[in-house]
Amino acid sequence: MMPYYKFNYFGLDTSLVIAVIIGIGFGFALERGGFGNARILAAQFYFYNMRVLKVMFTAIVTAMLGLFYFTWIGWLDLSLVYTIDTYIIPQIVGGLILGIGFVIGGYCPGTSIVSAATGRYDGMMYFAGMFFGIFVFGEMFPWLENFYNSTPMGRVTLPDFLGLSYGLVVFLVVAMALGAFAAAEWGEKVRFKITGRIKE
Amino acid sequence: MKNYLLNLSTPKKLAALAGFLAIFALVIGNSGSKNKISVNAKELALSAIKDQDKISAMTLADWIIKDKLDFTLVDLRSEKEFTEYTIPGSVNVRMEDLLNSDLKRNQKLLLFGNDDISSAQAWFILKSSGYDGVYILNGGLNSWKNEILYPKRNVNLTLEDSIKFEKIKQVSIHFGGNPQVRISESTSDAAITTSHKIAPPLPKITIPAGTNKKKKEGC
Lengths: 200, 219
Fold this sequence. Notes:
The complex is a heterodimer of chains A (200) and B (219). Chain A is mainly alpha-helical and 200 residues long. Chain A is 70% helix and 2% strand. Chain A has one domain. Among the domains of chain B are: 41-139, Oxidized Rhodanese, domain 1 (3-Layer(aba) Sandwich); 150-197, no CATH class. In chain B, β2 (72-75), α5 (79-84) and β3 (91-92) form a beta-alpha-beta unit. The N and C termini of chain B lie far apart (55 Å).
């Protein structure tokens, strides 16, 4: 039964090897999705190109349906899957900082590594900047620690928080994704009519 | 209709599949988070402070002999320990399998491990999962060994105590035990520990007739 690590199918060492393999696969999928290109990523924020929205929502819907049905079949125990605890205010602040960096630099941490791996200089610079930021954060941590650990809410999931069944949340997210896909397609058609350009 | 579906582009086919799975998910509702439970902490605390759910080794032995046992004895130790020795009529259920085992919520369960710790942990898991009749063998298998299998008596006892010990001796022999008499009255701590070390081998499991019969289902 999954998650395999929690059920002791393999130890920590093996899990690290598996993590590397999955990580390479993830990076490959991101690159093939066009996420190694800062122009495509940044265009999402100006609604020039809706590829990020489509790829991200596709990934979310695929993973979510997989987890839901694996649990239903009995292959997976969803309650044992690790989720990061919620610290609502520090995480909102952190999300804003990441978002600003994303708009300015054109990458998020994962895609900057993908970009650097494909040999782009902007990706490498972004990658170096990210590690400089991590270093500064580490040095400042004693001053930030109280804020970092403030407003702890523990493990929060949408079904628990909203009091809805998992099935209903799955349905709502898929409906939202399909709506967003349709809207993105429609928006691109309108844009093509006005500007005569398809992308960028 | 069929042609219409076949002529859809791949993304649209996938979107239709996702939509179908989402509607089916709505029907399923919760896909089974059986291991996650909500607990009434107050109720658990209240039933823990009452000592009614602890049963002594002597009481248990008495019930087994008189065939009055309406508990399912649950041995929480490892399979290896279980095959070496267990209380007659027990079933072996490991802690992590408790909620997936054949144990039923309306069964009366008597839990034991080597000591009280594992049975107390299992008690909590079962109680909080809606098992009502969960009991603990006080002192676990250790006190079963000390009180039933290898009871010790001192040499000079009062008459009353002697009669009592005779009874215990009968019980002990019934379970294949080995009652021991302490030779010297001056039992130092060292003497006790050595007598523990040379504890006689555990009796072979002989399941007394009647205790292992299947509980009748239904009426």
